[in-house]
Amino acid sequence: ALCFHFCAGIRHLFWDSGKGYDIKTVYKSGYAVLFFSTALTIAAWATVIIYGHN
Q: What's the pTM value of the predicted model, to 2 decimals?
């Protein structure tokens, strides 16, 4: 949830600047948020699994 919230927050910052309101861009940015939040989550877990053991 942390990675998703982070990525969605960046999306909202673009919206606050007035960019990305057309429906095509809204869908693309939504899929990008899902993709990057999933990738960040996998990377975080991989880091914990690989380097987290003492």
A: 0.85
Find out whether 14 and 29 touch, Cβ atoms under 8 Å.
yes
Q: Are 7 and 33 in contact (CB under 8 A)?
A: yes
Q: Give the tokens for residue 23.
A: 């429906």
Kindly state the average pLDDT of the residues 14-31.
Answer: 96
Please state, in angstroms and rounded to a whole number, the distance separating the CA atoms of residues 29 and 25: 6
How far does Cα 2 stand from its chain's mean position?
Answer: 9
The stretch 12-26 carries a mean pLDDT of: 96
* Domain residue limits at 28: 2-51
Task: Say how many domains are in the chain.
Answer: 1
Distance CA 42, CA 54 (A): 21
